[in-house]
C-alpha cells in the first residue's frame, strides 16, 4: 500500500475506481473540494483503500488537466463542479459522473453506495476558466 493510502476494509466498491477532488489529505474525513481541476488533492478510492494524491502528482507529465484525470482511469467521479473538457473526456470513456452531496469523502461514498447521488447535470458543466 502506498504511503498515503488508508485501509478501508469495511468498504467494498466491486473493483470500481472512484475519483473525488478533496481539500485536505485526511483520508475518509477529507472535505470534498468545491473545485474539480483546481482541487489541491484527489482521492482515488478502490476496494483496496483510499489513496490521496496531490494535484501536482496528478498533473506531472501532462499538459492538460483533463488528460491527467483520464490517465487515473476512474470508473466514477464524484464532484461539486466540472469543466467541459474534463466532463466530455470522462463521459466519452464511459465514466459516470455524480454531483457530490456531502461534506466529506466518507459521506459522498456512503451516498454513492446507497444510490443517493444524482448524475452530474450537464447544465452545470462550465466552460474552461483557465487557458491551457
From TrEMBL:
InterPro entries reported in the protein's UniProt record:
Di-Nase_FeMo-co_biosynth, DiNase_FeMo-co_biosyn_sf, NifX/NifY_domain
* Signal peptide feature range: none
Dinitrogenase iron-molybdenum cofactor biosynthesis domain location is 29-113
Cited Gene3D superfamilies = Dinitrogenase iron-molybdenum cofactor biosynthesis domain
Name this polypeptide is given: Dinitrogenase iron-molybdenum cofactor biosynthesis
Its lineage reads:
Archaea, Thermoproteota, Thermoprotei, Thermoproteales, Thermoproteaceae
Amino acid at each position: 500500500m502506498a504511503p498515503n493510502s488508508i485501509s478501508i476494509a469495511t468498504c467494498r466498491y466491486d473493483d470500481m475506481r472512484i475519483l473525488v477532488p478533496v481539500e485536505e489529505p485526511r483520508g475518509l474525513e477529507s472535505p470534498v473540494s468545491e473545485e474539480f481541476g483546481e482541487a489541491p488533492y484527489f482521492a482515488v478510492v478502490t476496494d483496496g483503500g483510499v489513496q490521496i494524491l496531490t494535484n501536482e502528482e496528478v498533473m506531472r507529465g501532462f499538459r492538460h488537466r483533463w488528460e491527467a484525470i483520464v490517465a487515473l482511469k476512474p470508473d466514477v467521479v464524484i464532484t461539486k463542479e466540472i469543466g467541459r473538457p474534463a466532463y466530455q473526456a470522462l463521459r466519452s470513456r464511459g465514466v459516470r459522473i455524480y454531483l457530490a452531496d456531502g461534506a466529506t469523502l466518507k459521506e459522498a461514498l456512503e451516498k454513492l453506495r446507497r444510490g443517493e447521488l444524482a448524475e452530474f447535470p450537464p447544465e452545470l458543466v462550465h466552460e474552461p476558466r483557465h487557458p491551457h
